[in-house]
Amino acid sequence: MIEKKNLSISFEEYSSVDELSKSDKNLCRESEKAMSSSHSPYSGFRVGVAVQLESGKIVYGSNQENVAYPSGLCAERVALFAIGSTYPDDKIISMAITAQTDHFEIKEPVTSCGACLQVMAEYEKKQSSPINVLFYCRNGSIIRTEGIKSLLPFAFAETRLQK
Question: Which of 1, 16, 35, 52 is most solvent-facing, going by the fewest CB within 10 Å?
Fold first, then answer.
């Protein structure tokens, strides 16, 4: 028998960075700084992420393009992999992601790609606690989620691959 099921997602939307808590506002501002190290000569689309760790540290990531396009890496994975190798036991509390380009005006928050969401889900599972995500549009709204489940409800998780 076929059973029809529905999913719902939960998120908050803010019309301005000024509506955010002090810590979320600060993290969004830090994500702007992260764009300065973007290597995006082909697309001209700069992405920056700032990640708040439980210890208070902020780790930055920016997109890194390569002339062999599949060899580049998104800002989110740059930051998350740096955290995994440098601060493996420091929980990720929140991350703010923003983007900018000189080619057009970005009017809505830019969200993470599926590969980045899958990596976020893996880190969330590893630390057994949710990661808050802020998709920050510098001249517009901000989307805030508590955890990755609302962003990727069917994240790949093969339990037989684990010890």
Answer: 1
